[in-house]
Amino acid sequence: MPAKTNDRLTEIRARVARRTAETPDRPDDVTLVSKQDTDDALAAASAHFFGTVEQIIQTRPVQRIPIGHIAPDNRPEMRQARLIPLPEALLANDGGIPVYGTMVDELSALGQSLRARQIQPILVYPGTSSIYPAARYLIMVGHRRWTAASLAGLDALDAVVVEEPTQTERVRIQYAENEAREDFSDMERAWALTQMKDALGDTAAWEAVEEQFRISRTRRHELTRLLAFTQPQQQQIALLRLQETQIRSLHSAVRAGELPPVQVDNVLGRLSEIAAERATLPVQNDSGGTAPEGVRRNGIDAPTVARLVARARRAAPTSAKEPSPRWLQLLQDQMVHTSKGLVRARERVALLNDEEADALTAELALLTKRLEEVNEALRQRKS
Amino acid sequence: MHIYAVALEKGGVGKTSIAVNLAVAFALVDLKVLLIDLDAQCHATQWLGIPLDQVRPDDSMLGVVQGRPLADCVRQTQENVTVLPAHPAMVGLPAMLISAPNSGIFALKNALENARASGAGYDVVILDLAPARGPVQVTALAAATRCIAPVQAEDLVLQSLKALNESVDQARQINPRLRGVSIVRNRYGLRGTIDHAYDQALRDEYGPQILRTILPIRAALRHAAGVQQSVFRYASPDAAEVRTLFIELIDELLQLDETA
To answer: Which residues in B lie closer than 8 A to residue A50 (C-beta atoms)?
Structure first.
């Protein structure tokens, strides 16, 4: 170290030693004025720092409830926007769905962990189930842990009992809780968005949904594009835990009407095969008995999907192609991004210097002219 | 005892880099230093050369919340810093804290007090936090005497700084010893007009909270992390300059707390 720095160190050491000798460290003698002050301060801190679920758990007693007394809420309007099959369906796997095997492995590992220690209680509310007649409580948060506990044969789970939530509360709390989970997929997010829109009422605007979930308009657009798939296709995408960016080429082709449903089924079928092959790889290669990795972690990458989509496009009948030109979707995407950029720019133009402001003004004038030209062309087309 | 919580709710601002090198700098002036890694990503633990496969969940803050004495969990590094390591299982720490008495808010404060009472106290404690609001952050702020926020001249960083100041104001209701947020300009380089505008906004809004010492962008810090050494052990052409700046920084912090 340079001499100057060493001198500085020596000086600080001497000062610190002097200071320590003068004022020995004492225990914390600063206390809050009264118990009431402490309680108020703790309540305010909890409200500021903790999420909704944390606050619920903090204020209510935890009960040990038998697994048989708990069930998922299967009413269509109250069903969680996640694809977690019932334990019996996972074990039976009548459809021979390859991903079920991986799910069972993951949930069994979680079940063993729960057997050792359940870190956080699940949230339930009083209710009955047509599928599980013995159930007395329905799950608000903790479907995955309940499924894992059922598969592992646990007797009971720690739970906090709350009142039956409204549909809006339920979707918002479940979304916030799931958002922190690594395996929450974009398809499930898109389902949650539509559930929230339904919960808010027929006339609710998407902006209200974005506000509830605190997501941007662009992100909401990205997610809702996945709803272009048919219901069975959406189920398959959720099972494969495919994210929106991974299958962008596929949903773009679907929305552009370039692929008939049968070709989309073929692509998804091939992706399921790839997922199943990859899920078994660690078992074949690892004599140490490592559990197979999940599909998403093995990664079906976007180029693989794009190649399959290109092949399907070539195989698709010509009549299915080009009901909507490809440039249109690209242009619409660019306009969403540009619009967002312009909104942000409005708040920041004050920071520009004169030269930058002049350049931006010129660009905007040109853009305005181009927009007017396209608008005029659209008007002429109508007339 | 000075307890510094290195925090900001935005990631990638250099919290761990500041925490690790501050800890070693304090140790160099013969202070007894404890670094507590509160981030389940375990970066500070690894940076100080502690192999993760030698850390059990109970050796981390998880064990402390369950009542293990700090002295049983910590380990000493070659650079004379005592470390309470992190473990990836600390993703469950927020839930564990919530289930503890008083939602675990005073878990760390009590653990440090107990360590002091049993004769294993520290002069300086550095808390390396994850970029998130929640039970871990409030537990850290309930124990801290000062919060240190590394910043760059960027819009999102300034937004996070506002959020951190609000959190610290809230935490001061339960921890009157918490003196507030000190801002350290880290990886600080002003290139374009926009950078200067944000720098001006930072000075206008938070002037009295900004520390004098500025840490510029230097490869030494990044490379030192790669070889699991502090910048005081790592040898490179620009390491000497960074070391001097960290010495300046601890001097500034010590003087600030001596006069407080």
So the answer is: 98, 103, 134-135, 138
CATH (residue range A53-184): 3.90.1530.10
Q: Helices A52-59 and A35-49 meet at what angle, rounded to 10?
A: 150
Q: Which residue of A has its CA nearest to B236?
A: A1
Nearest to B248 by CA among B22, B19, B81: B22
Say if the Cβ atoms of A30 and B137 lie within 8 Å.
no
A27 contacts in chain B (CB < 8 Å): 113, 116-117
Q: For residue B53, give both structure tokens.
A: 């496969």
Residue A322's pLDDT is what? 52
Q: What is the pLDDT of residue A288?
A: 36
Would you call B123 and A20 a contact, using CB atoms and an 8 Å cutoff? Answer: yes
Exposed/middle/buried for residue A38 (C-beta within 10 Å: 0-12, 13-18, 19+): middle
Tokens linked to B74: 């910590």
Phi, psi of A316 (to 5 degrees): -70, 145
The count of other CB atoms within 10 Å of the CB of residue B191 is: 8
In this complex, do A58 and B96 lie within 8 Å of one another by their Cβ atoms?
A: no
Phi-psi region of B42 (alpha: psi -120 to 50; beta: other; left: phi over 0): left
Mean pLDDT over each residue of chain A, to the nearest integer? 83
Rounded to whole angstroms, the Cα distance separating A238 from A232 reads: 10
Burial of B77 (0-12, 13-18, 19+ CB in 10 A): buried
Q: Which regions of chain A are under pLDDT 50?
A: 33, 283-298
> Between chain A and chain B, how many beta carbons pairs sit less than 8 Å apart?
106
pLDDT along chain B (260 residues), means of 10: 93 92 95 95 92 93 94 94 93 84 92 93 95 91 97 87 93 93 92 87 93 91 83 87 94 87
CATH 3.90.1530.10 domain span(s) along chain A: 53-184
Distance from B5 to chain A by nearest Cα, in Å? 16
Return the pLDDT at A36.
65
Q: How far apart are CA B100 and CA A120, in angstroms?
A: 11
**CA closest to B121 among chain A residues:** A25
d(C-alpha A164, C-alpha A137), whole Å: 10
The fraction of chain A above a pLDDT of 70, given in percent, is 87
Spatial CB neighbours of B41, under 8 Å, sequence gap ≥ 6: B86, B88, B130
Residue given tokens 């294993």 in the structure block: B120
Of the candidates A2, A42, A54, which has its C-beta nearest B102's C-beta?
Answer: A42
Per-residue pLDDT of A257-307, as tens digits, reads 888 888 999 999 889 888 877 766 554 433 333 333 333 444 678 888 999
Nearest Cα of chain A lies from the Cα of B171 at a distance, in angstroms, of: 7
Domains and CATH numbers, chain B: 2-259 (3.40.50.300)
- Using the beta-carbon criterion (under 8 Å), do B193 and A356 form an inter-chain contact? yes
Mutation site for A-interface testing, chosen from B98, B168, B255 by largest number of A Cβ within 10 Å: B98
